[in-house]
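Record type: ASSEMBLY
Status: queued
Input:
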Amino acid sequence: MVQKVAIVTGGNKGIGWETCLQLAKLGFHVVLTSRDPSKGEPKAEELRKQGLKVDYYQLDVSDSNSIEAFYQKFIKEIGRVDVLINNAAILLDKEQPSHTSEQLRQTLETNVIGPYHLITLFAPIMQKQKEGRIVNVSSGVGQLSGSYEGLDTYAISKTALNAVTHLFANKMKGEDILVNSVCPGWVKTDMGGSEAPRSLTEGAFGIVWAATLPKGGPSGGFFRDGKPLTW
Ligand code: NAP
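Status: finished
Output:
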């Protein structure tokens, strides 16, 4: 049987790394990516030492040249993709509460345009394979029904990422390619901080759930722990 391949962005730490671990334990061939090889390669090696099938690739999602280079290398060396986890993101609002337009531009590059670019490249491969799962790691902070909690540029980016989910889920409606947004909840990571109540395992749960949905599962939704959230 063909081993399924899962690409994870920002896989060197936090929820991304935990997602790599969980997917690899489920039998996926995981492609752990990070913008900095010196941070990502050792984290991939850590998983390989546990007997898991994990390859490392450099990928800076804010840089379209890096995305194109990753795609070309990936096509030549692996070619198959069953799962794409758009996990990498930045949150600048806490340290830069000025919420400038430049800050928004930078945030959108990483949190929205990178994921959009990756989907435009990898969804056609899934379409050829007639199967695929795309998970956009979003945040409850991006809910239009909420207040954005002073995380202005980050929240806008997550609302926009949800729009990306909506767009591609509709484009591929009727195909076995399920595209969903997932909020991991408030998780103890560098981004979430030490006050966060949730563990990495709890945070990655809903992401792995969406990555492993059966045929006929939901698409174009926003979920936390496998349960629907309002937009
Ligand atoms: P984290 O610990 O700060 O990790 C973020 C990851 O994204 C790191 O691997 C980081 O790489 C990577 N990254 C940032 N910019 C990148 C770029 N341009 N190219 C490639 N990788 C890049 O954050 P986390 O808490 O695990 O967050 C993971 C996801 O969950 C994010 O989408 C976040 O918005 C979402 N989320 C988190 C929480 C929470 O409470 N933690 C809540 C809701 C949603 P470097 O190590 O190189 O910086």
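Annotation: The chain has a mean pLDDT of 98.
Annotation: Strands lie at 5-8, 29-34, 54-58, 83-86, 132-137, 177-182, 222-224, 227-228.
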